[in-house]
Amino acid sequence: MVTRTIDLRSDTVTKPTETMRLAMAKAEVDDDVLIYDPTARHLETEMARITGKEAALFVPSGTMGNLISVLVHCEIRGSEVILGNNSHIHIYENGGISTIGGVHPRPVKNNEDGTMDINLIESAIRNPDFEICYPKTRLICLENSHANSGGRVLSVDYTDQVGELAKKHNLKLHIDGARIFNASVALGVPVHRLVQAADSVSVCLSKGLGAPVGSVIVGTKSFIDRARILRKTLGGGMRQVGILCAAALVALQENVGKLGNDHKNAKTLAEGLNKIKGLKADVASVETNIVYFEILEGSNITALKLGKIMEEHGILLMPDSSSRVRIVIHHQVSASDVQYTLSCIKQAMTGVENGGN
Ligand SMILES: Cc1ncc(COP(=O)(O)O)c(C=O)c1O
Fold first, then answer.
1. Are 39 and 182 in contact (CB under 8 A)?
2. Membrane-spanning residues where (predicted)?
3. Ligand 1 atom with minimal separation from the 10 CA
4. Which of 10, 13, 69, 92 to mutate to test the pocket of ligand 1 (most atoms within 8 A of CB)?
5. Span 293-325, pLDDT tens digits
6. Which one, 114, 198, 267, 348, has least CB within 10 Å?
7. Count of domains in the chain?
């Protein structure tokens, strides 16, 4: 009989804590489209302070945060954005920057650590002398931490270099900082320093931070003024949104301090997986809360099948392909959950080896 559920599918699966629910119940609210909601104002002021930017805006999701940011920077049709070929904006956001915004993507190869080579970024910038044929480059996007690279972090030095390149060519820099707090904790660098070079950042509240809903975008006051209008256009203007922002304020207070522990648990998990016969995890590349592991050829089990067996033990995983599994740690996964997961996976792999399952 399953006695506990350990949900490792994503850091988006967290449930609001009692403190969050209490804060939501008591939240002071008003109409946020009319900019009267005091709790939304409080959250936005706090996020602007933490990120070192002039202003902030609560948005329903990270996808909308990225879309609005790209659209504000690329308001003229035919603009082009340089972004990673393995980035969330390029792969998982329905091509919204093109279909909704008329913005042309110029993907540059992401390295295994989530960076793009600076010389490749520079050579992807269009020559304005040939505008008769070329779209106009207006924006560079980075992602920190980089999800598809297993939560690898981009350093301050790298981000500053891309910022300098953007300035040199009169471009803007946007950071998809869905997990920027994870990156900040992993690097031991305050968020405001990490994003200093960026003109805008989209920060998810509902991932590592553990709030139930929402993201915040930050930038200059004029950027946010324009973003507010676009948010309404896209249907993201919500009314008594302070209910959600109250939970996010609790998340900022209570959960940022737990991210280091999540990273430690992720590392322990990767090390443990690597010791199980038939599995391989790249321990060194686990820098934050995401772990990918491979099922080695000849192991006689697919990722889907392993996921099904784990489900019987109350452990939820996300197969990434037939031989690759993604695990994401969050504040509702404990060190003992990690040990239990490792013992169940080991048992399943031993069962397969012995011809069971
Ligand atoms: C790196 C990154 N950016 C953006 C998003 C989009 O966030 P949302 O699911 O809130 O739209 C995600 C979601 O997983 C993400 O991992």
1. no
2. none
3. 14
4. 92
5. 999 999 999 999 999 999 999 999 999 999 999
6. 267
7. 2
